[in-house]
Design a protein that fits this description.
By secondary structure, this protein is mostly helical. It has seven helices and no strands. The model has no long low-confidence stretch (mean pLDDT 91).
């Protein structure tokens, strides 16, 4: 990856903290055990650029040599940054195909409605008032 969003030091700090949040357990790898964890973090931040400022603030505030204490202090002092750190870590973790395979999650798949389900929305006359009302809308401005 040529244009990284986070620096190498930020990635190292992130991985250290994320390993506390997502440690290895039974058959599941820790966050940094994932071979592509840096790529996944970059992908999350590319898809959700509004998280970058809070994440950078979190990474700047912590002492990565004491990750448990650093996370506790961050959680108490800046819950927004702590929440962003957790969100990015979990999002990047579940992007990994190894993790999804271990969980038995194939990812989002298309499941068209069966003919039996096609008219479920008509059951119990839930939509009947809308159908009776007829089409209403406002003309969109040009």
């Amino acid at each position: 990856m040529t244009d990284q969003i986070l620096t190498n030091l930020e990635h190292e700090t992130f991985a250290t903290l994320a390993d506390v949040l997502i440690p290895a357990a039974e058959s599941m790898p820790s966050f940094s055990d994932l071979g592509a964890h840096k790529t996944h973090v970059e992908r999350v931040l590319t898809l959700r650029p509004e998280l970058q400022a809070d994440l950078r603030r979190a990474l700047a505030k912590v002492n990565a040599s004491l990750p448990n204490e650093a996370l506790e202090k961050l959680n108490m002092g800046d819950p927004q940054a702590f929440g962003t750190l957790g969100l990015v870590a979990s999002s990047a973790y579940y992007l990994d195909t190894e993790v999804r395979d271990l969980l038995g999650y194939p990812g989002q798949i298309s499941r068209p409605a069966s003919p039996e389900e096609e008219h479920d929305y008509l059951i119990d006359d839930l939509l009947q008032p809308v159908i009776d009302r007829g089409a209403i809308y406002r003309k969109a401005p040009d």
